[in-house]
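quick one before i forget lol
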Amino acid sequence: MIMSAKIEYAGKAVLELALRQREQGSVRIATIAKSQNIPKGFLLQLMIRLKNAGIVKSARGKAGGYSLAKDPSFITLADIVRAVDEALLARPEYKKGRRDPADKVLQEVWKSAHEELERQLETVTLEDLKTKMTGGQMTYSI
């Protein structure tokens, strides 16, 4: 499965904020962009979406920048995906009306795969990822 650049960059940016949360407070766009190798203009667009979704907040001024809007243990990967690329977790649409047996079988498989992906993304929080990055253990199965 190929992740969109929006999802990959948004995940990296929010994880960067989670890792810097206690030591730094607000983090400037330029700092996140440089640290995570994300184009600054693209990152700004993503941060606006994340802010509108209530995942990050911004502060103006000399000490301004972005920080998490809530505790990392309450932000899931599904929240991030929905904020920047809602199509990935949108419910699959199926043909209505008469369907042949192959359509029915394939639709069941796609529905099941979609539900499993959504379940997995709902169970992994930023706190889990932060713990894993700082040397703790995180286990989950796909």
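fyi Residues 5-133 form a domain with the Arc Repressor Mutant, subunit A fold (CATH 1.10.10.10).
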